[in-house]
Amino acid sequence: MDCTAVLADVWLMLDNECDSATRERLQEHMDHCSPCIEAYGIEEKIKGLLSRKCGGEHAPEGLRDRLKLEISRSITVTRIETTEG
Using CA atoms, how far apart are residues 36 and 29, in angstroms rounded to an integer? Predict the structure, then answer.
C-alpha cells in the first residue's frame, strides 16, 4: 500500500467508516511509515478542532432542504447518464 492511498483513506479511519481489514492495512502501513503517521496525527488534530469548534452547530433547515434537493438531482442525473451511456 503506498502513501497516497493511505492518506486518501485517513479520514475513513478517523471517522470509523472503514472495515476492519482496511483499518488493519492502514495501521500496518503507518506503523512503518513516519510521514504517514505524522500526516494522520495532523488530520486527527484537525478533526478534533473542527469537532470542538463546530460540533454543536446545525445547518438552517432551508439550507438542509436545498442540499437534499441538489443531492437528489445529482443522483438522478448520474443515473440517467449512466443508463444512456
Answer: 8
**Residue 9 contacts residue 24 (beta carbons within 8 Å):** no
pTM: 0.56
Q: What is the pLDDT of residues 35-49, one digit of tens each?
A: 999 999 998 999 888
Q: Which three cell numbers stand for residue 67?
A: 442540499
Residue 82, exposed/middle/buried by CB under 10 A (0-12, 13-18, 19+)? exposed
Please state, in angstroms and rounded to a whole number, the distance separating the CA atoms of residues 30 and 25: 9
Amino acid at 80: I
Q: What is the pLDDT of residues 12-38, one digit of tens each?
A: 888 888 899 999 999 999 999 999 999
CA gap 21, 26 in Å, rounded: 9
d(CA 6, CA 33): 10
